[in-house]
Amino acid sequence: MIDEPRRLVDRQDTSAALHQDLRAAILREPIGYDVDRGLARFEAWLADPASSTFDPSAATGTASAGASGIPIGAWVAGAIGLTGLVAGAVLVLGDQAESDPTESIGRPLDIERPAEAVSEPKTPPDGAALVSEAEPVAPANPTARVQSVAKPRSVARPKTASTNSVAPTSGEHRLQAEMRALAEARSTLSKDPKRALMLVRSAEREFGDGLFAEEWHALEVLALSALGQTREAHARATVFLRRWPKSAFAERVRRVTDGANPAER
Amino acid sequence: MSTSDVIDAGELFRRHARFVAGFVRRMGAHAEDVDDLVQEVFMVTHAKGGYRVGPAKPTSYLAEIALRLLANRRRRRARSREHNDSLQIARAATGSATASDVLEARHSLERVQSALDMLDVDRRAVFILFELEGESCGSIAAGLGIPVGTVYSRLHKARAEFASAHAGLLSRELLRPEPLHARSAT
User: Fold this and answer.
1) If pLDDT is split at 50, 70 and 90, which confidence band does B97 have?
2) B159/A125 CB distance under 8 A
3) How far apart are CA B14 and CA B18, in angstroms?
4) A–B interface: beta-carbon pairs under 8 A
5) What ranges in chain B are assigned the alpha helix state H?
6) Rounded to the nearest 5°, which phi and psi values hold at A65?
7) Per residue, what are the HEC states of A24-67?
8) For a Cys-Cys bond, which of A102, A226, B5, B24 suits B29, CB 3.0-4.6 Å?
9) What average pLDDT score do residues A53-66 get?
10) In the predicted structure, residue A36 carries a pLDDT above the cut 70
11) Distance to chain A for B181, nearest Cα, Å
């Protein structure tokens, strides 16, 4: 067991000037952020991701354009993105996925974070007293979860049916594009796993090890398995389980390595 | 896993939006981007089903998402933050106290941010989370999905680079004539 290093600000050998500056940085926020206004904006989006009337600037009083120059409202133009993703991933990847996707809309994805870091610990920067770390606290009211995600609806969105490219369309936010692509891939899986797999491959090229890498890799395993490419499915499943052993998808993926076809469940 | 093991994005927002805003700012996000970045972090968190209680604290978990979003943003526009922007960090943070306290705090924050800006992104993230946010190395490792040994290694290097950069900034300030308004403020 390696002791947790001590912070510079707690060490005696830290210079006075450095100590003073670090202390100032710890005590003072680097930017003023209005949580209430930000939360209002977020909750408005949660309540109706597809709302075309939602004006972020009205909710926050801040500029509505992001770095990309795309208003945050543009996110909601493709409601299929997040809403479909949530519904779809629960449907296709979730262990309790059943036949009616709309029943699962309000349920966030059941996703586990990657396993805690393993492997050989190197020497800590200094060997000092162990710093106790508070465990994450469960919400006081865990049932008070947001249940207001809109049902999937038919929304105009970039057509990709004729192509397997998942690249962002003109003016589309990259993250939005990834969410849309993932939703599309998942909806395609059951009826056309070959196309789903092509979308996965395209996403791999387009987004690399993106924000939804875990979801993409799980989808890849399931698509390969559905196509009967057992050997590759097993290989990918093994890689997946090594990387995300505690994933919510792990059990589903593990069935592939156990020889069962999860798409048949 | 029971629902009590999951914290939804809305609750996370209430608890940690301020942390996310500060973290992305320290990581070099433009001031005008912070609000959107905070929104995006929690949108992704929501899409992923919220935070699941585990070895990573919620803040480490959110930091990892923020880092990926920042990386995406950097790829989109590879322009660096102007010095003026860095100064705004300090201005935004000053609270009460005397004019000289405010000025001193502002200089402290400027030096810290300038030194942070000189660090490699990966090391900067670990430095911020450990030294400024008080995260444990284990939590950082779990949140970022890297071995704890890598956290130690990055922290070790980040400290050396930060201290060196900080010392350089101090020595340059000592060589610089004190501005008139600073003297009049004391």
Assistant:
1) low
2) yes
3) 8
4) 266
5) 9-26, 31-47, 58-76, 83-93, 99-117, 121-127, 137-144, 148-175, 180-185
6) -95, 140
7) HHHHCCCCCCCHHHHHHHHHHHHHCCCCCCCCHHHHHCCCCECC
8) B24
9) 35
10) yes
11) 21
Residue A84 predicted with pLDDT over 60? no
pTM of the entire predicted model: 0.67
Out of A31, A119, A133, the one facing B92 most closely (by C-beta) is A31
Mapped onto helix, strand or coil, the DSSP state of residue B52 is strand
Residue A161 is which amino acid? A
Amino acid at A16: A
Which of A4, A10, A18 best tests the B interface by mutation, with the highest count of B CBs <10 A?
A: A18
> What is the residue whose two structure tokens read 């559905």?
A226
Q: What is the ipTM of this complex?
A: 0.81
CA atoms within 13 A on the CB side of A108: 28
Whether the CB-CB separation of A139 and A189 falls below 8 Å is answered with: no
- In chain A, the residue whose alpha carbon lies closest to the alpha carbon of B134 is A7
Backbone φ, ψ for residue A186 (5° rounding): -70, -35
CATH 1.10.10.10 for the B3-185 domain, yes or no: yes
Q: Say if the Cβ atoms of A145 and B8 lie within 8 Å.
A: yes
pLDDT tens sequence across B58-87: 999 999 999 989 987 877 765 444 444 554
